[in-house]
Amino acid sequence: MTPIVFVHGFLGGSRQWQRQVEALQGYDVITLDLPGFGENAQRDAFCSISGFADWALNELKARDIETFHLVGHSMGGMVAQEMVARAPERVDRLVLYGTGSVGVLPGRFETIDTSKTRACADGPKVTARRIAATWFLEREKALEYELCATIAQKSNLKAMLSGLDAMHSWSGAENLPAIRTKTLIVWGDRDRTYPWSQTEQLWQSIPNANLAVIPNSAHATHLEKAELFNGILRDYLVA
C-alpha cells in the first residue's frame, strides 16, 4: 500500500489534516510539520522552498518511506512541486491543492510585502489569526477557523518572515512541463490566496493533469467541504 504524504501550507500544520486522516483510515497517512510551523514551530524555518523540499524528502527517507503519493496545499504545493523536481521517481501520484507555480502570489488578498510589514507591526499572533481568517468564506465565523488560527499562532515572527520570503523568491513555472507524475489540481472557486489564473496554469502546463474545482469554498476547502474533498482524494489516490 502506497503511503499518502500531506504537506501543509504557510502557517499550517499536521493537525489541520485530521478530517483527511479519518477519511483515509486504514491507509498509511503521513502528515508532515514543516520546520517553523505546527508541531515543528520550535525549529528554524527555511528561507527557500527548495530548503523545505530537501528537508521533507530527507525526513521521509529517515522514516524509510521511499515511494509515496504526495498532497501539497498552498505553500506546501510549492514544496511538493520541488520534491517532484528533485525526486520524480519517489512520487507515485501528486495532488496540488490550493496552490500555484508563481511564488509572488499575484492576485492574493494582499501582497507578500504587505504581509511582512503588517506582521512586523502587529506581531505574530495577531497576524496568524488575521491570515487564517482569509482561508474561509465566513472568515472568523467558520466552524474550523479556530483550529487553523490556533495552529497558525504556533509560528513566531521569524518563521513567518522566512516563509513569506521563501514563497516570494520562488517560481516553478518553467518546471511544470517536466512533471510527468499523474497529477490532480484541486481548487476552491472562492480562494482569496490563489486566483484561477494560478490554477489554470498548473492544469494547462502539467502534461498529465486533471482538475477538480470545488464550489463555494475558499482556501481551506479540505475543511469547508471536507466530505467532497475527501471523496475526490480517495477516488484519485486509492481507487
Automatic annotation (TrEMBL):
**Origin superkingdom:** Bacteria
Keywords per UniProt: Hydrolase
A GO MF term: hydrolase activity
Q: Which residues cross the membrane?
A: none
Q: Which SUPFAM superfamilies match?
A: alpha/beta-Hydrolases
- Span of the signal peptide: none
Q: Has UniProt tagged this entry with the keyword Hydrolase?
A: yes
Chain ranges of the AB hydrolase-1 domain: 3-226
InterPro entries (UniProt xref): AB_hydrolase_1, AB_hydrolase_fold, AB_hydrolase_sf
Q: What is this protein called?
A: Alpha/beta fold hydrolase
Record organism: Ruegeria atlantica
